[in-house]
Amino acid sequence: MLYVRFPLSLRNVEDLLHERGVEISHETVRFWWHRFGPMFAAEIRKRRIAGMRSSKWRWHLDEIFVKINGERHYLWRAVDHEGEVLESFVTKTRDKKFALKFLRKAMRKHGQPEVIVTDKLRSYGAALKKISADARHETGRWLNNRVENSHLPFRRQERAMLRFRRMRSLQKFAAVHASVSNHFNQERSLSSRPLFKANRAAARAEWRGLCAE
Questions:
Q1: Domain boundaries defined on the chain
Q2: Suppose 76 and one of 4, 89, 165, 204 were both cysteines; which one would form an S-S bond, judging by CB atoms 3.0 to 4.6 Å apart?
Q3: DSSP 8-state class, residue 143
Q4: Measured CA distances, 1 to 37, 125, 149, 172 (Å)
Q5: Is the dihedral of CA 97, 102, 108, 111 positive or negative?
Q6: pLDDT for 20-45, tens place per residue?
Q7: Other Cβ atoms within 10 Å of 65 Cβ, number
Q8: What are the angstrom distances between the C-alpha of 162 and each of 9, 39, 116, 124, 159?
Q9: How many helices and strands in the chain, by DSSP H and E?
């Protein structure tokens, strides 16, 4: 959880555990992350998708540049109106083919939204037209701030990890990071302090239960 939720490197986690009297190597943290991260993320997604009916209202789509071994790749991300990360998808290009693949993947899991907000990348318009969803498409200078802000936690973690070496590693990490962030995201600025503390405690208790299964 420390490695995925916070902008920490493997060695940072090793040092934090050392302060708590737990002596391990950073490679042990790497093993834990590769072994258990996808399992926990899959369980979180399964539980949250079952109760996310409101995510069909409004989606925000965007793509960010990510370097892998010095080469530019694209991380496509779909976020709902409440900031929940619905889908992450890594590609080498951002053309109509991959935009369509990304949209179909997200809709297969979450259904079709009423409104889809994007930037002015033409690939989105072409892909939405292909699946007859272009009537629900909106673009605008400030309309996509929700997904732009959702990139920030991932960018902080990317810097801590000193970037990625393989597409597969990026796809795996992006999926796990999104699930864990969703689980602990309490919209702090929109809640009173007592409500925030109660929600945070509930999220932590659910996480401990998940890890104990």
A1: 1-213
A2: 89
A3: T
A4: 8, 37, 22, 15
A5: negative
A6: 999 999 999 999 988 999 999 888 88
A7: 9
A8: 9, 24, 33, 30, 5
A9: 8, 5
pTM over 0.90: no
Q: State how beta strands 115-118 and 137-139 pair.
A: parallel
Alpha helix ranges (H) inside 94-144: 96-110, 122-130
Phi/psi for 57 (5° steps) reads -75, -60
pLDDT on residue 52: 57
Residues 118 and 124: beta-carbon distance below 8 Å: yes
Beta bridge partner(s), residue 139: 118
Residues 6+ apart with CB under 8 A from 131: 100, 103, 104, 107
